[in-house]
Design brief:
about 50% helix; about 220 residues; 10 helices; mainly alpha
């Protein structure tokens, strides 16, 4: 059964950005995910950059955009946490010999820890996105935190299913359905299986953004 159709988002106006910022200020589920005033101010610029990236890369469906924003709200606190909160020592141990990294002594785990709006991790993923974007993220991994680059990785990655290589936006949000819960498979299917309550946070965030984008 088809869901109601909504006008594609092709114009990024200041009014739209401001309404999405307002939604961000209200869609917390507890004090743990409530925005401080400084974080909310910071989020405004990130929301605008993400909307422009969606437009530039053909993600204009309001539901898909809402889910991108909901995911970023969850993954990096709407751009306020662009670097994985893990010590270099722990990253080197945890990420040794996986995702294209060398052994613990190589330092790859720390060098290629998670960065971005929806973080990429591991030498292999940094190399993949270097090739896709024409930016050397292997030699300059901190560039993955630059908003313009992070937005491309986030939007293209979710659009094309690059995060898991198994699921993409259109699989869950299209003309016939809007499944914000199972869309978690795009980025983190294990969380959906093991910690469904956390996945449901993104549903709440996404619904608040969809209300704005579809009005």
């Amino acid at each position: 059964m088809a869901v109601p159709s909504y006008k594609p988002i092709t114009v990024v106006s200041d009014d739209l950005v401001n309404r999405l910022v307002d939604a961000t200020s209200k869609n917390h589920t507890s004090n743990n995910d409530r925005f401080m005033p400084s974080q909310l101010r910071e989020s405004k610029g990130h929301i605008k950059i993400l909307l422009n990236a969606c437009k530039a890369h053909g993600v204009t469906d309001p539901g898909q955009i809402a889910y991108v924003l909901g995911t970023v709200r969850r993954e990096s606190n709407m751009g306020n946490l662009m670097l994985e909160k893990v010590s270099d020592e722990r990253a080197n141990a945890a990420y040794a010999n996986i995702i294209g990294n060398g052994d613990e002594a190589s330092g790859d785990g720390a060098r290629f820890k998670g960065r971005g709006y929806v973080q990429i991790t591991g030498r292999a993923n940094y190399a993949e996105w270097s090739q896709k974007l024409g930016v050397d993220l292997v030699e300059n991994p901190d560039k993955a935190m630059e908003p313009s680059i992070a937005a491309k990785i986030c939007v293209i990655g979710m659009r094309d299913g690059s995060y898991t290589k198994r699921a993409k936006l259109a699989d869950f949000i299209n003309a016939s359905k809007r499944d914000f819960l199972n869309a978690r498979k795009i980025v983190n299917p294990r969380e959906l299986e093991r910690y469904p309550a956390k996945a449901k946070l993104i549903v709440q965030y996404s619904e608040s953004y969809f209300e704005v984008l579809s009005s």
